[in-house]
Amino acid sequence: MEFIKIRFANDFDRMGSKFEKTIADMFNTMNPMFAFAKSAWKPPIDIFETSDSILITAEIAGVERENLELEINSRAIRISGKRAPVPSAQNGRYRLAEIQYGIFERIMHLPVLIDPEKVTATYKKGLLQINLAKITGETTYKVPISGE
């Protein structure tokens, strides 16, 4: 059985300022060769929720499993990695180049608390599937009130 690295983290705010991100997104839409931020491209993601879990599917075809990293905490998930470019022929030129290569990163803040110890991840046929178990039920505690 092969494993995808899962790292537990507390801080997902390592992204640049909103201004840097906006400028980078603007240039990335004009030409994927321009990349100012760490995230050169963003893979499409589906998030499906049931009563007891959240299933995240990321489309990352062409990314080697060893180039994937998954970080989680009870409130957020970070998927990052790198897709290497496919070598092109020496004596030709591109007529169309839509596939994006390089480093990617997706950070998603979850709407509910999840149990970081009950996370599974599989990668098959270009799809990364992450199953996150929700923390079931909140515990209520009675607090004694002291006074005079």
Output the keywords.
148 residues; mainly beta; Immunoglobulin-like; 4-stranded mixed sheet; 4-stranded antiparallel sheet; 9% helix; elongated
How are the SSEs ordered, and which strands pair?
Blueprint: E1 6-8, H1 18-30, E2 45-49, E3 53-59, E4 68-72, E5 76-83, E6 102-109, E7 114-124, E8 127-134
Summary of the model, kept short:
The chain has 148 residues and is mainly beta. It has one helix at 18-30, and strands at 6-8, 45-49, 53-59, 68-72, 76-83, 102-109, 114-124, 127-134. It has a domain at 1-10 and 39-86 and 98-136: Immunoglobulin-like (Sandwich).
Notes on the structure:
This protein has a domain of 97 residues: Sandwich (Immunoglobulin-like), CATH 2.60.40.790. Helices cover 9% and strands 37% of the residues. The chain is built from one helix and eight strands; from the N terminus they run βαβββββββ. The strands form two sheets. Strands 1-4-5-6 form a four-stranded mixed β-sheet, with no helix packed on it. A four-stranded antiparallel β-sheet has the order 2-3-8-7, with no helix packed on it. β4 and β5 form a beta hairpin.
Q: Give the DSSP E fraction (strand runs of 2 or more residues).
A: 35-45%
Helical residues, percent:
under 10%
Can you write the helix and strand succession as a string?
Answer: EHEEEEEEE
Task: Enumerate the strands of the largest sheet in spatial order, edge to edge or round the barrel.
Answer: 1-4-5-6
